[in-house]
Amino acid sequence: MLTIEKKSNNDELVIELNGRLDTTTAPQLESELKASYEGVAELVFDLKDLEYISSAGLRVLLSAQKTMNRQGRMVIKNASEEVMEIFEVTGFTDILTIE
Amino acid sequence: MQQITLEAAIDNMPKAIEFIDGCLEGMDCPLKKQMQVDVAVEELFVNVAHYAYPGTKGDVTITFETESGPARALITLTDSGIPFNPLEREDPDVTLKAEERGVGGLGIFMVKKSVDAIEYQYSGGKNILRITKSI
Predict the structure, then answer these.
(1) Domain coverage including residue A11
(2) Of B6, B11, B110, B114, which to mutate for an interface test with A (greatest number of A Cβ within 10 Å)?
(3) Of B8, B38, B50, B124, which is most buried, counting CB atoms within 10 Å of its CB?
(4) How many structural domains comprise chain B?
(5) For chain A, what is the domain count?
(6) What is the spatial distance between Cα B48 and Cα B126, in angstroms, rounded to a whole number?
(7) A19: helix, coil or strand?
(8) Which CATH number do you get for residue A76?
(9) Burial A50-73 (b: 16+ CB within 10 A, else e)
């Protein structure tokens, strides 16, 4: 189960993820993102309530990072210790901007 | 020993995780380790769902056993699909920049990093993947 909440403020888009970003829920986030990129210069992922992430979720974040590299900036906020561990092991701490 | 047999389909992955989490609950498993075990089982299950039964359907059986002193979980995934050893897959280069990164190989790499040991065996027409994780 994944709940995606979007908050838009001018050219900033904040996406709050609540639940699990896995093989079954990653496509949901992917299509939500595709419909939202236009006009976004700063994309913020608030991961405060993200309990779990697998490689399918990482792939969506990687693709979002590539898109935002072309049109602005992407920031990850409030990742839990467990999610941070996954970012570290996979080298995503070097790819993503984590605050 | 606890065991579940599911059709090897992506949509069944949450059921596999639910089974594993139920088993881990009985072990007082810390959240971080539970997440690592979940990652390993998800990636391996999805791998079987993708590759084991091309053009046809089949099952995957997951068994969960425990050892005590020190506490360890032993999890086995068994399928009757085509022989396929995911551990032979080359690890991705995790030092590459976003633009240079491909999407392949990350799942199995995460499995290797999440558990203490992983073994593959093809025996009696079955792919057997066994992971060991100290809890």
Answers:
(1) 2-95
(2) B110
(3) B8
(4) 1
(5) 1
(6) 12
(7) strand
(8) 3.30.750.24
(9) bbbbbbbbbbbbbbbbebbeeebe
CATH number for the domain spanning B60: value is 3.30.565.10
Supply the Cα-derived Rg of chain A in whole angstroms.
12
User: Is pLDDT at A46 greater than 90 in this prediction?
Assistant: yes
Q: Which parts of chain B register pLDDT below 70?
A: 103
Containing structural domain, residue B34: 2-134
> What number is the average pLDDT over the span A27-36?
96
What pLDDT score does A90 carry? 93
Q: Is B100 exposed, middle or buried (0-12, 13-18, 19+ CB in 10 A)?
A: exposed
Give the A window 43-82 contacts with B, CB below 8 Å: 51-52, 54-56, 58-59, 62, 65-66, 69, 81-82
